[in-house]
Design a protein that fits this description.
The complex is a heterodimer of chains A (about 350) and B (about 240).
Chain A lengths: L1 H6 L2 H11 L9 H4 L1 H5 L28 H7 L28 E6 L2 E7 L2 E3 L2 E4 L5 E5 L2 E4 L4 H22 L5 H12 L10 E8 L2 H7 L6 H5 L8 H5 L1 H10 L1 E8 L4 E3 L2 E4 L3 H11 L6 H18 L6 E8 L2 E9 H22 L1
Helix pairs in contact in A: 12-13
Chain B lengths: L34 E6 L4 E6 L2 E3 L2 E4 L5 E5 L2 E7 L1 H22 L5 H13 L8 E8 L5 E6 L5 E4 L1 E5 L2 H11 L15 H18 L6 E8 L2 E8 L4
Antiparallel strand pairs in B: 1-2, 1-10, 2-11, 3-4, 5-6, 6-7, 7-8, 8-9, 11-12
Helix pairs in contact in B: 3-4
The chains are: A alpha+beta (about 350), B alpha+beta (about 240).
Chain lengths: ~350, ~240
């Protein structure tokens, strides 16, 4: 891109993109999609919406352009990609939005497991039988989405962008707790509108590198560039009082963020119309000491039972597993086969019982 | 379409019976009908739409195709509210030109799809009432179809139907192109001629059963040689 060459930005972003970003994010570099943000003077700006009743934004991180408030009201069809402009009078919509889902996530000794169905429904019609409800945000953070699919997809993208900027500015990845807080604060101006996002952020935090950097012992770049928790532990032992606090800050972490303002930490969450059915399976099986195989099978069973009973969940199941090495994805499985297998085994036990009588 | 929204509390259809006191407001939206369809193949993509523009019980025009050529490798099909379709295509054309001037290259199909998603979402609270489907070739020359909802959620598909007859066409495409719910059938990849014939048959069926679809069918076939257009007449009643 011509202007990027002038500004010498392209190669810096590409190098770190290759190291950090995981594959399969909409099939393109995140940096290039916000082209105006890259070569305008406001490289580090964070576009914020301004409702008519607000004079200044409640969001304070990053640098806010002072003329944004007057700009956004007059130029509703501005060519710059900005966050949505909230109109004063809500207009009744002639079409339904996509809703209805089953997503779940839980923490165990092997990391965090996230699972979701793949049906995207629009008041009675299945708009998409193969949608992606678990979106990777960066190499060690994955988010499940529930609510309106457009809202979830776009806000996840905005969150990825902000986390990347944080990483570039501060030299370390933001923790899951921080990312959840960021998302919650970004959604707060839209409280009361019809925005509907209910996401769980599942991540693996790695704080050991950054603490030592703050103490001036190692550079920050190591924490940024490596996925490994392979930093030497010698300094831990000398800092006994804060060692326990540090240990609780790193490792698997799970947060639930909702567009009505909730932000909760937990070890097990299920969100969506099929969540009651999923909870019943998860509550009886999930514990800290599960193996990866056991955890996968419980998550799969929970989604299967939810799709069985909930009309708005169905089709396939996606499972993501987040560990200290990053996230891995299990191949998508069509639950139709499972239904037939179960029917067959029930028929066989029924016949066996009949024979015994 | 028959859904619970069309019925009032007494069980009667809202459009034909009195279902209780209702407030009338000016609605900035209108529904102009039309169906759009896109299919992606190994090295081609097809975007097809009918050409009827209707509103309520009237037909405004029999020659209003809903396929818009964006670049040499990308075609956009949009149906829904015609006013928003026109404005949206104008905005997309302007953004394409801006990109071309500042980056000295044409936008790829994937980039157009991502841009359209942000354009649609920028109007999250007063949306464009348009169902979009982009069909084109990706950077590797393979066919790509991107389908959108009115507020910008999108994903890449192999085939997608949108618009008034989408609920009728999508299951047919699932069966014929996706081979869903068919046992013991060999999954043959779709050739261009077979795909064009399928699209024609599918629209003829749609025109039979959907009142907003008919008049003529415009097919745009995108290959690396360029974009070829065909016009086929449909039922005019």
């Amino acid at each position: 891109m011509a202007l990027q060459d002038l500004c010498n930005l392209q190669h810096i972003l590409l190098e770190s993109e290759a190291a950090e970003q995981s594959p399969g994010r909409f099939g393109e570099k995140a940096a290039s999609s916000y082209e105006s943000g890259l070569h305008s003077s406001s490289l580090l700006d964070f576009y914020i919406p301004v409702a008519e009743c607000l004079d200044e934004s409640p969001i304070e991180f990053g640098q806010i352009r002072p003329d944004q408030s007057s700009c956004s009201i007059s130029s509703e069809s501005s060519p710059l990609p900005s966050l949505p402009f909230v109109s004063s009078q809500p207009v009744p919509l002639p079409f339904p939005m996509a809703h209805g889902t089953t997503t779940l996530a839980f923490v165990f000794q092997g990391g965090v497991l996230a699972a979701a169905d793949t049906r995207s429904s629009c008041s009675g019609l299945v708009a998409c039988p193969a949608s992606q409800k678990i979106l990777p945000i960066h190499s060690h953070l994955v988010g499940t989405t529930s609510g309106t699919s457009a809202d979830c997809a776009l806000w996840k993208r905005i969150l990825s962008r902000e986390l990347r900027l944080y990483q570039l500015r501060n030299g370390r990845r933001l923790s899951t707790s921080g990312a959840a807080k960021l998302l919650s604060h970004m959604l707060h101006p839209f409280k009361g509108t019809e925005l509907c996002v209910a996401a769980t952020l599942c991540g693996w935090d790695d704080h050991s590198g950054s603490r030592r950097a703050a103490q001036g012992q190692k550079t920050d770049l190591e924490a940024v560039s490596s996925d490994k928790v392979s930093l030497s532990k010698s300094s831990f032992l000398t800092q006994q009082p804060c060692a326990r606090k540090e240990a609780s800050l790193s490792g698997p972490s799970l947060f639930y963020v909702c567009s009505d303002g909730s932000r909760l930490q937990g070890t097990l969450f299920s969100v969506g119309s099929g969540s009651p059915y999923a909870y019943s399976i998860l509550d009886q099986g999930v514990q800290w000491g599960l193996t990866v195989a056991e955890a996968t099978s419980i998550a799969r069973e929970a989604v299967y039972r939810a799709t069985y009973r909930d009309a708005y969940s169905g089709n396939c199941v996606d499972i993501y597993h987040v560990t200290s090495q990053g996230w891995t994805r299990r191949t998508r499985e069509d639950l139709k086969e499972e239904y037939y297998r179960e029917k067959e085994s029930r028929r066989q036990t029924h016949e066996a019982e009949k024979k015994m009588l | 379409m028959l859904s619970a929204q069309n019925f009032g509390e007494s069980g009667k259809m809202k459009e034909y019976h009195y279902a209780g006191p209702t407030e009338h407001r000016f609605s900035p939206y209108a529904f102009n009908g039309g169906t759009v369809l896109a299919v992606a193949g190994e090295d081609f993509a097809i975007v097809a739409s009918d050409t009827r523009l209707s509103e309520g019980y009237s037909i405004h025009s029999r020659d209003s195709p809903k396929c818009y050529k964006l670049t040499d490798t990308t075609v956009l099909g949009c149906s829904g509210f015609h006013g928003d379709c026109l404005t949206l295509t104008k905005i997309i054309d302007a953004r394409l030109k801006m990109y071309k001037h500042s980056n000295n290259k044409t936008m790829t199909s994937g980039a157009i799809a991502a841009m359209l998603s942000t354009i649609l979402y920028s109007r999250r609270f007063f949306p464009y009432y348009v169902y979009n489907i982009i069909g084109g070739l990706d950077e590797q020359g393979k066919g790509a179809v991107y389908s959108f909802d009115p507020v910008g959620s999108y994903q890449r598909d192999t085939y997608k139907a949108g618009g008034s007859a989408s609920a009728m066409l999508q299951p047919l495409l699932d069966n014929q192109i996706g081979f869903k719910n068919m046992e013991g059938v060999e999954h043959v990849p779709l050739t261009k001629d077979k795909a064009v014939q399928l699209v024609k048959d599918v629209f003829v069926s749609a025109a039979e059963r959907d009142v907003y679809t008919g008049d003529a069918l415009r097919i745009c076939i995108v290959t690396k040689e360029g974009i070829e257009e065909q016009n086929i007449p449909l039922r005019k009643d």
